[in-house]
Structure to design on (307 residues):
């Protein structure tokens, strides 16, 4: 492992999106980046689907073998609110990252500039204002598959920073052992986990990943409410069935020993600050290193198709 810059100041944004409104989401993001950048943060992290929000509870009219036209209207509205990369929204975020002098990680619903498919994507911007990594979720979960396609590029990118390589897996990708192993093989010291999981099982997952990979895990979760949805959706009755608080958050930072560096935050939007001591990454590998002295490449053959 190369020498790492010792201290990394992180701002983890528990973000409440304005669902289906990419302009409003982008403006909020710019304001958060400016605020965290003014506090000399090195890395600013936003959750999965910060633009234009995660459409929890919506079916978009899909049933097995059939579609409903009202659902198609809502899907097209979500499609229009998704982000082309590069595009006006990414240009604004890039400008904000450069002004803040920080790396910025953010989850979006990406609209491909050529085909008609949406992708669940995480972008990492550098402090120079350039997109350093664009990771598309390799397998959307459950009914997500009727909204977003499987990744066709950007499988496992990492960004080399003064604090070591950083990378992300989106939500339930983190339940894929071999996907995690790819990031470990690339030497990630900071594992970004943008997601929409506010349950106890997820908290157990991120703590396991931290101690398995002996890396810092940045658990970045959405907070959103019934009031975050537009009132004029074609299938508004689906929103009416939801609880007032749809996703409670639970964002936190876990250290390489599997301990909370910051406790989970519930039921409120805001920024969680943490100072990462990067010496902890190397120190924690003394007795377990999944890709080094605790690996057995002579008996395990691990092959990755990456692009």
């Amino acid at each position: 492992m190369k020498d790492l810059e010792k201290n990394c100041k992180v701002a983890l944004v528990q973000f409440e999106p304005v669902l289906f409104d990419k302009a409003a989401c982008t403006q909020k993001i710019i304001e958060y980046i400016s605020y965290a950048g003014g506090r000399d943060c090195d890395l600013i992290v936003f959750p999965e689907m910060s633009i234009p929000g995660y459409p929890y509870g919506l079916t978009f009219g899909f049933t097995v073998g059939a579609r409903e036209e009202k659902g198609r209207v809502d899907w097209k509205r979500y499609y229009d609110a998704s982000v082309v990369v590069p595009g006006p929204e990414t240009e604004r975020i890039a400008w904000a990252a450069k002004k803040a002098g920080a790396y910025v990680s953010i989850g979006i619903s990406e609209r491909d500039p050529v085909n008609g498919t949406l992708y669940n994507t995480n972008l990492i911007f550098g402090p120079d204002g350039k997109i350093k990594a664009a990771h598309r979720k390799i397998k959307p979960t459950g009914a997500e598959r009727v909204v977003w396609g499987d990744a066709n590029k950007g499988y496992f990118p990492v960004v080399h920073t003064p604090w070591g390589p950083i990378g992300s897996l989106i939500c339930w990708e983190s339940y894929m052992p071999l996907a995690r192993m790819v990031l470990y093989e690339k030497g990630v010291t900071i594992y970004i986990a943008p997601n929409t999981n506010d349950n106890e099982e997820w908290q157990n997952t991120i703590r396991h990943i931290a101690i398995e990979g002996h890396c810092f895990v940045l658990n970045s979760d959405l907070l959103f409410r019934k009031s975050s949805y537009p009132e004029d959706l074609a299938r508004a009755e689906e929103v009416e069935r939801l609880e007032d608080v749809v996703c409670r958050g639970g964002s936190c930072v876990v250290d390489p020993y599997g301990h909370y560096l910051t406790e989970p935050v519930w039921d409120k939007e805001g920024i969680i600050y943490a100072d990462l001591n990067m010496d902890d990454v190397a120190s924690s590998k003394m007795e377990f290193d999944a890709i080094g002295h605790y690996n057995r490449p002579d008996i395990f053959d691990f092959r990755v198709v990456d692009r």
Observations:
- Residues 141 and 172 are 7 Å apart (CA to CA).
- The chain has seven helices and 15 strands.
- The helical segments are 22-37, 69-81, 88-100, 177-185, 200-213, 236-240, 279-284.
- The mean pLDDT is 96.
